[in-house]
Amino acid sequence: MTLREDINTALKQAMRDRAAARLSTLRLVTAAIKDRDIAARGEGEDRSGVDDAEILGILAKMVKQRQESARTYEEGGRLDLAERELSEIVVIEEFLPKKLSDAEVSRAIQAAVADVGAESIRDMGKVMGALKAKYTGQMDFGKVGARVKDALNQG
Hints:
Strand content: under 5%
Oligomer: single chain
């Protein structure tokens, strides 16, 4: 079953369960995917819609947006809104692969450096590209960038 089918199945189940908050979040997810489908058609891409890798990217972006919003709401004293954002994150993360541990991230960075033959900081883009292609949704690339930089400086 594809990720798109998993999300649609969960959406239908949320409707049956009358789970309003979950349903709302899943509708936001499907809307974001449909927006990307439409954009892909507008770019002349000839396919039936975005693939699982792009959906993972959309979901990861949605989680990051909600984390930033929750932080802003907490700083502004709007804990009710922050709580809603955090509950949406829980629903979205159900469809993302499990996050890698620090040790697994380190091994992935070492493998990516070796795979692309990176020798200096100038190769950082290649390493990050390889990591994003293989580990979308499994690591926070904002934090991984500094670790890749350190690995390339040591090497």
